[in-house]
Amino acid sequence: MKKLSSFVLCALLMSCSFSKNEKSNASDTTVKEGIDSVKQEISFNTELTYPGSNISFKINTKGDSLIIQPSGLSISNETLYHDITGYTVVNAEIGDLNIDSYPELFVYLTSDGSGSYGKLIGYSVNNGKSVSQVYLPDISENDEVSKGYMGHDEMAIVENTFCQRFPIYKEGDSNANPTGGIRQIQYKLVDGESSRILKIDKVINF
Q1: CA distance 48 to 46
Q2: What backbone phi and psi angles, to 5 degrees, belong to 100?
Q3: Global pTM value
Q4: pLDDT-derived band of residue 42, with 50, 70 and 90 as boundaries?
Q5: How buried is residue 13: exposed, middle or buried, by Cβ count under 10 Å (0-12/13-18/19+)?
Q6: Rounded Cα–Cα distance for residues 27 and 32 (Å)
Q7: How far apart are the first and last CA of the chain?
Q8: CB–CB of 55/103 below 8 Å?
Q9: Integer angstrom CA distances of residue 120 from 27, 82, 85, 110, 206
Q10: How far is it, in rounded angstroms, from Cα 101 to Cα 155?
Q11: Tell me: the pLDDT tens digits for 112-136?
Q12: For a surface tag, which of 58, 139, 164, 169 has the fewest beta carbons within 10 Å of its beta carbon?
């Protein structure tokens, strides 16, 4: 049997959560208002360990701050802080996207509004010694992928690929009813001049 393509894997792993979002978009505004009123009382709290190593990350939120605490690095385990005002952390994953035997940590956020625009905060481990932040170019920087984009992103690590998926809006579509299908972007992690970058590998509309 032939190995499933990364596109098929992305689609399979992301389809369930995406379908749930499509059904709930109509009530996004009401739900978000309720979330905003209690956000200070809610904390995202998890710990992820890279299999076969002692490298781990504790991820939690406190108010409008995201706090990431690395552990197991040989030089620097400095606590990392991010202001996430206007966003809510929805998930976090660990994987090895550049296949160097050291992990990447990706934290996924969504904006607190009906658009639910996705955001990524990511870090890559440097030879087991320290971490540096991963850069994901904004959708608006690329005309090919930004056409028809109005948020409602889904993000996931699939093997050594980062996938971002969202509905496509045609002119006149309401926020709750996109009619242009779905766009899926697959990225590879590459070395940039000053940091590692997620570079577009494939763009698929379906």
Answers
A1: 7
A2: -110, 10
A3: 0.81
A4: low
A5: middle
A6: 9
A7: 25
A8: yes
A9: 24, 12, 14, 9, 24
A10: 22
A11: 988 899 999 999 999 999 999 999 9
A12: 58
